[in-house]
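Name: Sigma-54-dependent transcriptional regulator
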Amino acid sequence: MAKILVIDDNLEICNLLKRFLTHKGHEVETTLSGMNGLEFVKKEKYDLILCDFKLRDIEGPEILQEVKKISPETKLAIITGYSDVRVAVEVMKKGAFDYVVKPLIPDEILSLIDRAINTPTVVDVKKDIVSKKELKSINQQNFGGSDYIWGKDLASKNLLKEVSLVAPTNFSVIIYGESGAGKENIARTIHNLSERKDKPFIPIDCGALTKDLAGSELWGHEKGAFTGAASAKEGQFELADGGTIFLDEIGNLSYEIQIGLLRLVQEKKLRRIGGVKDKTIDVRIIVASNENLKNAVEKGRFREDLFYRFNEFTINVPSLRERGKDILLFANHFLDAANMELKKNVLGFSKEVSTLFMNYEWPGNLREMRNTIRRSLLLTDGKEVEISAIPHEIVHANKFAFREDNDASKSHRPEIVKKPQEEAVDLKEIAAQAEAEAIRKVLIENHFNKTKAAKQLGIDRKTLFNKIKQHDIL
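Structure predicted for Sigma-54-dependent transcriptional regulator:
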C-alpha cells in the first residue's frame, strides 16, 4: 500500500483517482491547489505525489523543486497532456520520477505506483555514483564484457559517470553512437550495475529483424498462429522478464511493431501472436541508434510518443577518434586479447604504428580496431606490430580521404611523418586501395555478413568473394 497525494485543479480527476486508488488499497489525499499541496507535504510523508503539470496557482516544476527541499525521499510524477510531453521529459531530468499522459489509463497508473514503491529514491541513487576507486574497480571487473574496457581519458570518465548515475534506476535509456563505438557494452554495463544484474540481459539487433518475423521474435507466438508455427514460442521480452532488453538500431523497427512496443511500455503487458491472454512483464528497456531519433520522428519514421517514452535519459558514446590517449589503451587491450586467441606473445606496437593509430579516423570505431589488430597480429612474427602488418587502406587513408578533417578533434594527435617513397602512388593503386577500403567498411557495417554486404555494394556474392581475395581483406 502506498500513501499518495493527488494535486490537480480538475475536481473530476481528483475524485476519479481517489475512488480508483482507494479501491486498490492505497491511502489517497487530493487537493486542487499547488500551494495547499505543499502544505500537505510539510505535514505528512507521502510515497508518491501525482501532480498536474499546469495548475492555476503554481506549475508542476516549481512544486517539484519545493518537494525536493521539504521531503527529498518523496517521488513526484507529472500528469500532463500530450502536447506537453516534451516539457514533462525535461522535468524528469530535473528529478521527477515519471509522467503520465491524459487520458489516464488505470493499468499505467498502477504500474507507476508499483515502480515508485520499489525504486530507490533519488537520494539513494546519488549515493551509488562511483568514486575514483570504484572507477578502477569497474575497469578491472570488465562489466561491459571481454571486448570492452573503460578508459582513463576525460571523455571515458564522463561517460562512466553518466552510466553509474542512471544504472541503479529503472529509467529507459537511449544510447547514441556511431557503429562499432560500443553501445551494447554500455547497455550491458548499465544492466550489470543495476539491481537487475542477476536477471537476463538480452540484446537484439533490430536491423536484423524482418518485418514479417519481428512480432514473433519480440512478443512470441502460440502454436498455429501462422503458417509454420508448429509450436508455441516465447518472445525475447518474455525471456528478459525481470531483466533488461537492449534494442540496437531501434529506428529500423516497422511502424506496426512500434505500436506494439508502445503498448508494452505503457501497460507493462504483452500478448503473444495468436494468443488471447495478456502477460504482465517487468523489463527495463535500453535502446540504441546511430541516428538521432528526434530527426526520425520529424521525418515520420519513428513514433513521437514512443520516443518520449524512451527518452528518460540519454547517453552519447564518443567515437574512438574522440577518446584521446585511450586510443592506444584500447589498442593494447585488443592486442592482449589477440595474443591469447592466437597463442602469440607480441609485446606491443612500433612507434610508427602507434602514431598511425592516433591519427587514423577509425570509421568503424572499436570493432574496426579489434579486427585490424587481430589481422595484424596474424601477420606479425616479431615482438612488435610493424607498419607492414597494418592494412593498406589504413596506412594510406590520408591519400583517399575525401571528407574534410576536423582539426579540433585531432588536436591531441601527433602528425604522421610521410616517407618520400609514399608520396608517389599511381592512380591504379589508389583506385584499388579505395575499393578495398569501401568493401572493408561495408563488411564492418554489416558485421561481416557477406550476403548483406554484397547487396549493399550492388554486386553478387561471388564477385564480393573474389574482391575480398584480390584485396587480401581478412
